[in-house]
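Notebook entry, structure prediction.
Reason for the run: the old model in the group folder had no record of what sequence produced it. Starting over properly, with the input documented here first.
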Amino acid sequence: MSEVSTGTIGLDTNVLARYYVADDTDEATQRQRQAARKLIESGQALALSKTVILEFEWVLRGYYGFDREQVGQVFAHLLALPQIEVEDRATVKRAVAVHADGLDFADALHHSSYADCDSVASFDDRGFARRGRSLNLRPPIRVPR
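New structure, fully documented this time:
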């Protein structure tokens, strides 16, 4: 995304949340939701960083209570929007797929970012490494000894 064209607008997590979450609890939130819709549906060139995607998953799951399937549906829609340039799109798509298979999204994004490595080192044997082994992820996740 380092070569984003002039006129492109980068999106923050809160704009995505207003667009995807029907949380019209007050007038200000309703105005923000309308503004987010107007921007995202305008056809304007938009950019989305991996860090915002990571935070957005946490907001959907942790704050709004979305389950894995709902998060996957939101990401599928978001990644299909042609006006949004996603930083490292292939990595994000792999992470979304591995997340759908059961890996924590942050771990899935980390793992997908290391696709060209021989292995991934993590002390999270109960979660990341164990789940990675059960999914037969490549590169393998190893616990340093």
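Summary: Residues 27-40 form the longest helix (14 residues).
The old model has been moved to the deprecated folder.
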